[in-house]
Amino acid sequence: MTRAIPYAILTARIGIPYRALCRSTYRNPTIHNIGVRRFNIHSAANAIPVHMRKYSLFALLFGVAGCRAWYSHQSQSENIVNNDVLAAKTNTPKGPMKNASTQSEGIKVTIGTESLSTDDLYNEEPISKRVDESGKRVLEKLTPLQATQKLRRNEESYLIGRGRGVMRYDVVQIPSNDPIEDDHSEKIIEVPYTGTDAFNQTGTSGDWMFWGVYDGHSGWTTSAKLRQVLINYVARELNSAYKNATMESSTGLPSNEAISAAMKTGFLRLDNEIVNESVKKTFKANTKLAAAKYLTPALSGSCALLSFYDSISKLLHVACTGDSRAILGRRDQDGKWTASPLTVDQTGNNPDEEARLRSSHPGEEHVIRNGRVLGGLEPTRAFGDASYKWSREISEYVKEYFFGRTPSKLLQTPPYVTAEPVVSTTQILPEKGDFVVMATDGLWEMLSNEEVVDLVGQWIQKQSEGINGDFWKNEIKKSEKFSMPITLNIDSQNLNSQKTPIRQKQWGIKTENERFVVQDKNAATHLVRNALGGNNSDLVSALLSLTAPYSRRYRDDLTVEVIFFGNGENSGEVTINKEASATKMIKSNL
């Protein structure tokens, strides 16, 4: 009886926040209107922050380099390969998913868009993270050779031999946090094409290709969950949009507006599961163990950058939630590279984003303070970050009875942060050798858009001169040697919205013409090396020698993907590019 009274009080209190949550839950659009639904969204597009102010890097590093501190920890290494290649038959299967034999070195091939399950966010698989295989952490001064080994430890490269406009993509990750809070995912889905006329490809199939980069913060669980399921959520919505278009359009392709709406719906559905449905499940279970399972991805947060390429239309749709960035590199008629941003950074320093938030929360002076939402969160759009989305009542209840944070004193009319992305559409020209760079904001703190495109151009030039140069010579016309500056293609109104490189000033180095170097086979690794100092091997070694949490003062987690478009061979296979992939990546694919 004495236990029943407090338990009755506890359960009686659950109803109030639970009902409040239900009122604010995102409502899913019906299948019939998903392809044409419009979202009311405003187009969103060098002072150094306190945590990045200049400290004595070398005093910090070499003061401890003399003594090497070893300590062991429980390693949670998992050979998780983030790349799934999905292939569908010409006729979309109506039955359950079937497994097929692999077409490439260990990369799993699955059949059918019907396999893209989004039914239960938490019963599919545990939230997991790939970390270094070593069970030790070492604090020591890295030699240039050791620095190179660290740069290449997590690099991957894949050759896309499907003859559908994409030749290759490279990816690399460099942690600053421990474990890294960034993540990424890639997927290829072969789909039937039933349209006619416009593309003259009746009866063929096409590829949906996805590349995702996720910049986590306040933990790694939200970005890891995005790696596991975001592409599936978006592909499900796109599948509905394409089915509707088959009945309504002779081309069999949905409009750009319909694709944009589908991608937004996929993002919002997933964030609703992470932020709101997780609370319902926790309240229903009413245990701290359930809270630990369901609430962790809601309490941390993540930006998301997802690119979707349709090989039939050759359109690239880029959905951006947060401040990760994608840029397009393309040669003009004179052979010069042009850098075209495909996204705009969504932060409190973006005038459009600030105006959107002030319009949604009138009278709240501090909705943006010091360039941050309520003075705390820099990105204005993100997954998770429930403390900026839950009501004060729910936040306080979760903190008191489960696991949560004290809500901000400035919290009045949540939600302040949304996962709804801004979607851009770009016509890709594979015959021109287009490439796209996707990266978390850590790269853009070190390099400008122009520098990134120029560096990839230099890298392509170097590869065309090498032993395997025919691969590049056959697909990309060789031009004269590249030199800065290159053309920047950007609307003037967005110039003040993009972050600018500030790390060189913090590191106390000068921007010299000869600071870049080309020595990596992986284009993404090449970018990261030059972001960290390039030709200044001493600086590269020093920055990579710093360990968490001190390294975070000087460099962020880095995740970079480089996608190369071109009319390559059609072998039907996706293979790992061994010369540009880490040994452990090759082994995990055998």
From TrEMBL:
<dbReference type="Pfam" id="PF00481">
    <property type="entry name" value="PP2C"/>
</dbReference>
<dbReference type="InterPro" id="IPR015655">
    <property type="entry name" value="PP2C"/>
</dbReference>
<protein>
    <submittedName>
        <fullName>Protein phosphatase</fullName>
    </submittedName>
</protein>
<dbReference type="GO" id="GO:0005777">
    <property type="term" value="C:peroxisome"/>
</dbReference>
<dbReference type="InterPro" id="IPR001932">
    <property type="entry name" value="PPM-type_phosphatase-like_dom"/>
</dbReference>
<feature type="compositionally biased region" description="Polar residues">
    <location>
        <begin position="340"/>
        <end position="350"/>
    </location>
</feature>
<feature type="region of interest" description="Disordered">
    <location>
        <begin position="338"/>
        <end position="361"/>
    </location>
</feature>
<dbReference type="GO" id="GO:0004741">
    <property type="term" value="F:[pyruvate dehydrogenase (acetyl-transferring)]-phosphatase activity"/>
</dbReference>
<dbReference type="InterPro" id="IPR036457">
    <property type="entry name" value="PPM-type-like_dom_sf"/>
</dbReference>
<feature type="domain" description="PPM-type phosphatase">
    <location>
        <begin position="182"/>
        <end position="565"/>
    </location>
</feature>
<dbReference type="GO" id="GO:0005758">
    <property type="term" value="C:mitochondrial intermembrane space"/>
</dbReference>
